Amino acid sequence: MKRYGHWIDGRWQHPAQGHYPVINPATEEVVGHAPEASPDDVDAAVRAARAAYEDWSRTSPAQRAALLNQVAELLTERSADLVPLLQAETGATMRVAGTMQLPTAAERFRRYARGATETDTIPLAPVPVKASPLAPGGLIGAAAVRRPVGVVGCITSYNFPIVNLAGKLAPALATGNTVVAKPAPQDPLTCLLLGEILKEAGLPDGVFNVVTGSGATAGEALVAHPGVDMISFTGSSSVGKAIAQAAGRTMKRTLMELGGKGAAIVLEDLPDAALNSAVSAVGSTWAFHSGQICTAPTRVLVHRALYEKVVDSLSQYARALTIGDPVDKSTVVGPLISAAQRDRVEAYIASAREQGARIVTGGVRPDLKPGFYVAPTLVSDASPGMGVAQEEIFGPVVVALSFDTEEEAVEITNGTPYGLYDYVFSGDAGRAWNLAGRLRSGNVGINTVQRHPETPFGGFKDSGVGRDGGSFGLHAYSELQSVVWPS
């Protein structure tokens, strides 16, 4: 199997501490060997990024735009080689890997190619200012200008490795920053290959670097490094809190996209004709990357008048899904990323059963070997305080809860530490809009789980700090500088 090096300063660098295996979640076979980073490897990557910063930050927006467009073209051209590797290391179904992993990454580079040429200056109206001991009076003009942050450390998640990295890297480069990336340990190989692709597109050496590791060493060294100006992290809330604490010691800028425990509220006024859409939306927790997505509606809160009907429909939906080899085009539910994650998900299900919840469907390990599979599981009759209803599981598990009043639905929805993405399904859009305003959540979908690519993305509470996405991503990777002059 191929042994990869770190990508540092425009070339492959041999890791002094050797390699670790990257495992295919469906076959349990080795896909390749990723480099094991030491603090010295991280230091070399940060130094390369720091050395490249001055020249890169002074390139024209048009140059950055052309380069990012070229990256998108190269990703598309190489899809025949990259998609199988991406599929093998993530365990994603071919549908997800081929249509929502690599193409989405390419689109993010295209989006921020356009973003590179968006204005970075906000003019402010001149203001008459009286004389003071500080300076003479006069008409004072000003502008707020976006400036690059500097060296950005990007620590990414395992569920959508190259998409998540592209969502950080593209706006960071568009705004003139240099980057050191540390992908998730489970599936870093495609992210490593991104180094060669960016170099072929014309990116100067040192502007983009990638280090990997099987444990916490590389990430901790990156967060602590005094040469890093910002950390952009996607992952669990517990790790995010540790990063924030460490980053605070050197006053690093942070952008945190953390966990979620999304609630889909189904109101009693939802027409029968729309009920199937709501069921399919909640069913996406099972059908889309085996529930390994932080925005999934993993809780469905249903008005008591519709509760049994929705639970029955969801049960039928889950049982109809094909579980199996993700390379098979008929497969809808593939494996989880690792044996450890499978065991973690199964422990939540077992705990719910022990606490008196009802396992409507699933809850038993599928008879599939090899692979780290969990069957689509529907839990009902749970109380809002149970772990299965409070904590992010990151697997194909949906918890159904009933409510009698809108007030109760809001209380249950807001009653977890998270606030990333919630949903409201109602026959009255105005009512749903007003209800959305009461939810402590960074995002609310009304009668849909579809996304809008230009919205600011991020969470309330333990779900994160800051916003990216669309033009908001340009602000996320910039500092604002006020420039003042006499008119």
Automatic annotation (TrEMBL):
The keyword Oxidoreductase applies. Signal peptide: none annotated. This is aldehyde dehydrogenase (NAD(+)). SUPFAM superfamilies: ALDH-like. Residues 12-483 form the Aldehyde dehydrogenase domain. It is an enzyme of class 1 (oxidoreductase). Belongs to the aldehyde dehydrogenase family. It holds the Pfam family Aldedh. Keywords: Oxidoreductase. It catalyses: an aldehyde + NAD(+) + H2O = a carboxylate + NADH + 2 H(+). PROSITE patterns: ALDEHYDE_DEHYDR_CYS. It comes from the Bacteria. InterPro entries: Ald_DH/histidinol_DH, Ald_DH_C, Ald_DH_CS_CYS, Ald_DH_N, Aldehyde_DH_dom. The keyword DNA-binding does not apply. Its EC number is 1.2.1.3.
